[in-house]
Here is the input.
Amino acid sequence: MVSRTVIRGGLVITAAEEMHADVLVENGRIAALAAHGSPSAEGWSESADRDIDATGKYVIPGGVDAHTHMELPFGGTFASDTFETGTRAAAWGGTTTIVDFAVQSRGKSLRAGLDLWHAKADAQCAIDYAFHMIVSDVNESTLKEMDGLVGEGVSSFKFFMAYPGVFYSDDGQILRAMQRAGENGGLIMMHAENGIAIDVLVQQALERGETDPRYHGEVRKALLEAEATHRAIKLAQVAGAPLYVVHVSAQEALAELARARAEGLPVFGETCPQYLFLSTDNLAEPDFEGAKYVCSTPLRPKEHQAALWRGLRTNDLQVVSTDHCPFCFSGQKDLGRGDFSKIPNGMPGVENRMDLLHQAVVDGHISRRRWIEIACATPARMFGLYPKKGTIAPGTDADIVIYDPDAEQTISAATHHMNVDYSAYEGKAVTGRVESVLSRGEVVIDKREFTGRAGHGSYTPRSTCQYLD
Here is the structure.
């Protein structure tokens, strides 16, 4: 029994092109595209089970958010979104694939960490998902395990130059892991901040009585992000391995990436909407409200935003992910009242990314195709999911968003679907909104109504980074 859906009348936008075309979906995949009104397209409508009118709308690939943390344990609490609530919110925001981070606990194997994350996500997700692996304990056996994981579709490994005593790896451990990745085709993802130095500055600030959330940004200095980014690049160069730097927030760190790329090194960078739209002004909000915006790397002064937008236009930054890691203001963020260092690090955003980046199109920061490139196609290529994900072409998964470019909305916790009691973008008016979403051909958002289900999303093994072939 073939199930057929026709999406007609819309403007199909991919990273490569824009075309007025109808899209035929058969059994969860895109079967064909044809000009609207052509004999082929007219014939499809007669045999379709479902006919979706996208006149006046964009037809775009589902978003690929390559950096989320559902149910992440951090600072004595857990991220407030489960795989069920987080992936449902992602679908509402036009994202149809997430790549979440499985965590290796110190003293345990990578496999044990991965198995635990599979157990959390299994039969819970509304959209498709994959995993990266956080490595917090580098030794002979975990290095060997990296080879096996690449072979079974977990082909990227995250390391931290920050958080001593939790996730931190020293330069020697990082170098050994990079050498291994250079051999097995894995991609090293780096949280680049000098955590050892930051801890000294944290201690000194607290001793001076500087305890408010804004000091979180002041001690995590842009220069210490730049220094760690530079060091990570040089270690990767020594190891002969590619490097992907996560959540780049500072223009000085971006300059390090740009320099490395100009030298032809396989170095890549990601930024997040919070660094493009928010700033230290938010961290300084009174009455502890600034705690809502505590994340690491931290928000920077506004002048860094222009550099990040420029980096996205020049392709010195290739990806916008969310680093979605929500903690409720009440009961979680307030663990840090009187001591900013105890505020759980992380912000919600998985539902807002596609809309905020469309607003960037409206504002003239990026083009429509670049929007799709940084939010869909490049993250899919970077993490071995393309062309199954990230584009609209015959043979690809039918992960499709019908997007209304003219709808106006105001972002608010009152209307979002993330399991968190505040919005980082409360009251922000944006133009553009998701109308309907298909995940592997199944309608999960139907004209602003959720029709999906936990368990529809399937685990998706990944190949290696497609920029290194």
Remarks:
- The mean pLDDT is 97.
